[in-house]
Write a structure and sequence with these properties.
Number of helices: 15
Shape: globular
Number of strands: 21
Strand content: 15-25%
Length: 547
């Protein structure tokens, strides 16, 4: 859905329209923006309904989180939704994909993008009554920069200073043209400084957001209640919202059918199959139209772990695995197949040269390696979700057919990312890379964030490539959209040569809800212009209501 192409706010300095012109009309954009559509037979009946205040909403999410301190955890989609419930982000994406100030009043840069000043809106308080001001912004920024988790993503920052009653200024070590996009996610969430200092933000988050934290029972539910003093008049509509993590897809879908929840978020196409054509529910999905950088589903290889440290082995695995067979067998052939980090039909996409399915070539490469190093074997892993195990069993069978011996380990979601961070894996089923701007993936693709096994490495695959590094620098520092697109296409081609990822499909995000849930598709930014309703499954809890 589209709301036209309004200009970015004054002072943002990043002309989103120039990216839009590079694609096929206004539907194409560089940012990770998902076009949304209701499936045939499930058209929203609430389109003309006015939102109502009151009621409690139960929501099923895909996973549980480790905590809510923005500097101490790595949030997935579920985590960002939790965070957006109690925190506000400094910026959000407009319906056209542009960065729009949200908690911030303005985001301005100097001529060469080496200085950025953020000014927040006045007269906003945290849930405990503490003021949101320049000092609060500074405390959050210092906390994030010092964080071993988030800090590497902010490594271009050389200095932070309070520059006004409600503002701070970042001085950069290098030009950083896409800096505002990071403010739409985890690095832009603003927590009450005292809760960061005393460590209570991990389990008792205090923000300025539309809901006030009530309780969290890990693995069971997270509940927040309406903020009666929310700075956006009239919002939120609900009295309370509760999230229930249900990793198993069948159980999650059943929870909606039984009425245990009224809304679910899913990156598994099974939810589309389970609910399409059923007029009791509304399905909103990015299946039919997508623009920009979206999540991809792939097998991530630890390029520092033998035998996967040999590019010949990684290439052989790419030849040995058929994404189409896996997609047709377990995914009903619904999701588009993937050959790189960018989706076909978007400006960033170009042919990558990724190896096509060819078992004969796989066997030839593996014989060569085996003659030098012996038989090839390694461990594979996935989270403890039935469909993920089925996927890995198919992969295992395909690898066995070319002479590769593997084992499969199922890992709790809470340990999965940590294992990747410290290199305690060899091959993991993974989903990632859907961000507002590809620069946000710098930390995951750059050699500068690669650590040895046993040490932290935000480059989870531990792939090092000087050509990728050079292209990422262009993407970070150069404001020319054509040169940035060219640079990221180079990154995708190098992935096809290095093979740190075995691409399967792009992720298809789906939100399914009962007919009495309204407001999913029409959030606005302060001032009333449309905001992007959903990106990678993340929506605006403040806008949901019950009829």
């Amino acid at each position: 859905m589209s709301a036209g192409d309004p200009s970015p706010p004054e002072g943002n300095g990043f002309d989103r329209r120039s990216f839009l012109r590079l694609g096929a009309g206004a539907g194409a954009a560089l940012a990770g923006v998902s076009g949304l559509a209701a499936l045939a037979g499930n058209e929203p009946a609430f389109a003309a309904s006015a939102p109502k205040h009151g009621g409690s909403l139960q929501v099923a999410t895909e996973a549980e989180e480790d905590g809510f301190d923005p500097g101490l955890v790595t949030w997935d989609t579920s985590g960002v939704i939790y965070a957006r419930t109690v925190y506000d982000s400094l910026a959000v994406l407009g319906a056209n994909g542009s960065v729009q100030p949200y908690l911030a009043q303005s985001i301005k840069h100097n001529a060469d993008y080496t200085s950025w000043t953020i000014t927040v809106r006045p007269n906003i308080t945290f849930h405990n009554g503490a003021p949101l001001n320049g000092a609060a912004l500074y405390a959050n920024a210092e906390h994030l920069v010092a964080s071993p988790i988030v800090g590497p993503a902010l490594s271009p920052i050389a200095d932070i200073a309070v520059s006004g009653p409600y503002s701070i200024t970042f001085t950069m070590k290098q030009p950083w043209v896409a800096f505002p996009y990071g403010l739409t996610g985890q690095a832009g969430m603003v927590a009450e400084p005292g809760s960061l200092k005393n460590g209570t933000a991990m389990r008792n988050p205090i923000g300025t957001g539309p809901f006030v934290f009530k309780e969290w029972v890990p693995g069971d539910h997270f509940t927040a209640t309406r903020n009666p003093h929310y700075w956006r008049p009239g919002l939120p509509y609900l009295n309370s919202i509760t999230y229930r993590p249900i990793p198993d897809i069948a159980s999650r879908d059943d929870s909606l059918k039984s009425g245990t929840v009224s809304l679910l978020i899913s990156s598994d196409v099974q939810s589309i199959v389970d609910f399409r054509g059923n007029s009791q529910y509304v399905i909103t999905t990015d299946l039919h139209k997508v623009t920009g950088e979206t999540d991809q589903i792939f097998l991530m290889l630890n390029a520092a772990s033998p035998p996967l440290d040999d590019v010949r082995v990684r290439t052989a695995l790419a030849y040995a695995i058929s994404p189409k067979v896996i997609n047709d067998t377990l995914g009903y052939g619904i999701a588009p197949l993937s050959t790189g980090p960018f989706t076909a039909g978007t400006p960033l996409y170009a042919p990558t040269g990724y190896p096509q399915y060819n078992p004969a070539k796989a066997k030839a490469l593996l014989r060569q390696v085996a003659a030098e190093k012996g038989p090839i074997s390694f461990a594979m892993g996935c989270t403890n979700v039935g469909r993920n195990l089925q996927t890995m069993e198919l992969v295992q069978a395909e690898l066995q057919s070319v002479g590769v011996k593997t084992t499969i380990n199922q890992v709790l979601q809470s340990s999965y990312i940590t294992n990747a961070l410290f290199g305690k894996y060899q091959l993991y089923l993974w989903r990632q890379f859907g961000t507002p701007d590809p620069d946000s993936n710098f930390i995951f693709w750059s050699s500068t964030t690669t650590g040895a096994i046993g040490s932290e490495s935000l480059n989870f695959a531990r792939n090092k490539d000087s050509l990728i590094d050079a292209a990422l620098t262009v993407g970070r520092e150069n404001p020319n959209p054509r040169l940035r697109i060219k640079a990221y296409q180079q990154v995708a081609r190098r992935f096809a040569a290095d093979i740190p990822y075995l691409w399967l499909t792009r992720a298809v995000w789906t939100v399914v809800h009962a007919q009495n849930v309204t407001g999913l598709l029409n959030p606005t930014v302060p001032g009333g212009t449309p905001a992007l309703p959903i990106i990678s499954g993340v929506f605006f809890p403040s806008n949901l209501s019950l009829t």
